[in-house]
Specification:
Shape: globular
Strand content: 5-15%
Radius of gyration: 27 Å
Length: 473
């Protein structure tokens, strides 16, 4: 038999056998058929005059090519309203920006109350330990509460998909520090796993998912509430051990002497428990003293919303916010900064970000001209399509006002180390601030009466799957 003929005959038979499915793939509704592909190619193939541009894009960073040269000058670092500087910390490879920003506010408040004669550095690792333990309990109890629902139920899937994480909001700082207290950074410093959370988080998540299945089985077999609580306590003992071995076991008491801004000890050391140190540095409950403002143009303004299951402790506070126009948010921020009070704030920091200069402006990059198209979505469209949302918390520390008192630019303390950006800070234009700023936590003393009243409304409940409610990382 002729070998070439065998191959040819086999290939022809193969094509015949494949032909029905191939033709079906071309003509199936919604698919790309050959006629459509031809039209796509005709419309999308770079023109002869764009060959050089296509070569440049293929060989270089898109941001380098799209950078707006007219916007690439020296960053103006002057601010007409600026709070006192404090040391910049580094969250390293972790999603703890919410914790760093929240503790930045607390230590700044302490220095302000003492007219900058004393300063303190809080341990992020201490609060983070209890954040992870509490989130583990939130998961396990949530699984018990939803154990009667099937595994493919939306809420059950929510818990198993996100058993634990290291993101969060200022609500977590308030709940955790009130419950467990605070300690100085030198008493419980950062560990490798605190700064590099991914492996620890994967292992703890895997263990929690295993435990979640066990608890569902216990509920299905009619285990009593006391048996479930006993077994959950045993499970949390294992999680505690894993956290103690990675983040470090939380200190119960310690000796400490406060320091001035130059790091010199003031007075003799004394012994504190974490709760006593909280009382000495914060001095009052945080919950009830602030509002969280949000700018979400999809929803009605001057209404209060609450995100179900978005809390750090099972017995704590869900994330509740007042939805406001950016003009109101800016007005409260300016009032706070004029009184030297820093604020927790969060942004979509990945958009139009010149990382080399630590500068955020809506015209930093001209992607539209580079690709010969437009990107016309507004803030509401970007949110509802998951194109934009709050991704990173930073501490709002300064604003520059024009002659009419209107903001032109803002400055935030970041948590990516002192050498990043402008001395560890980022500078953003007011236009970028309006486009990509989402959350502000502000003391009630700076909040107008009408907004305070709005914050006291019965909240509209919002589900955590909403595109705007990813936690700050």
């Amino acid at each position: 038999m002729n070998y070439r003929k065998t191959i040819t005959l086999g290939a022809a038979l193969g094509l015949m056998l494949c032909a029905p499915s191939f033709m079906q793939a071309q003509t199936k509704g919604g698919g790309i058929d050959m006629q459509m592909l031809g039209a796509i190619e005709k419309a999308g193939t770079p023109a002869a005059g764009e060959r050089a541009l296509a070569n440049a894009i293929a060989s270089n960073s898109i941001d380098d090519l799209a950078k707006n040269f007219k916007n690439a000058g020296q960053v103006d670092t002057y601010f007409s309203v600026e709070t006192p500087k404090q040391s910049i910390h580094d969250q390293k490879s972790s999603g703890r920006c919410w914790l760093f920003s929240g503790l930045n506010v607390l230590r700044a408040n302490f220095a302000r109350e003492h007219k900058d004669s004393m300063r303190v550095e809080f341990s992020q690792a201490y609060v983070f330990f209890y954040d992870q333990l509490e989130k583990a309990n939130l998961f396990l109890q949530g699984v018990i509460d939803c154990a009667g629902k099937p595994m493919d139920d939306e809420r059950v899937m929510f818990f198993f998909k996100n058993p634990i994480n290291d993101g969060g909001t200022f609500c977590g700082v308030a709940d955790l520090s009130e419950k467990y207290g605070l300690v100085p950074m030198e008493v419980m410093p950062e560990t490798y796993s605190a700064e590099n959370t991914s492996r620890m988080a994967r292992l703890v998540s895997s263990k929690l998912r295993e435990y979640g299945l066990e608890l569902r089985t216990m509920v299905a077999h009619k285990a009593s509430a006391s048996k479930l609580r006993q077994r959950k306590t045993e499970m949390l003992g294992t999680i505690y051990k894993m956290l103690a071995m990675t983040i470090g076991e939380p200190v119960k008491s310690f000796e400490y002497a406060f320091k001035d801004k130059n790091g010199k000890a003031i007075g003799r050391p004394r012994t504190y428990t974490p709760k006593e140190f909280y009382n000495a540095t914060v001095g009052h409950p945080l919950n009830g003293t602030f509002i969280m403002a949000m700018n979400d143009p999809r929803r009605e303004y001057y209404k209060t919303y609450e995100v179900e299951y978005d809390r750090h402790t099972y017995d704590g506070h869900n994330w509740k916010y007042v939805n406001l126009p950016m003009t109101d948010i800016a007005r409260m921020a300016i009032a706070s900064l004029k009184d030297s009070a820093k604020m927790y704030s969060s942004y979509d920091v990945g958009k139009q970000f010149d990382r080399k200069r630590g500068y955020l402006d809506s015209d930093n990059y001209d992607y539209a001209s580079l690709f010969g198209t437009t990107f016309p979505m507004d803030k509401a469209d970007r949110i509802r399509t998951f194109d934009s949302g709050s991704t990173h918390a930073m501490t709002l520390t300064a604003v520059d006002l024009d002659d009419n008192g209107n903001p032109t630019k803002w400055k935030v303390e970041n948590s990516w180390g002192p050498s990043y950006g402008v001395g560890g800070c980022l500078i953003m234009t007011n236009r970028w601030f309006n486009d990509y700023m989402f959350r502000l936590v502000v003391d009630k003393k700076y909040v107008p009466v009408n907004i305070l009243k709005a914050s006291e409304q019965k909240p509209v409940m919002v589900m955590p799957e909403d595109p705007l409610f990813a936690e700050d990382e």
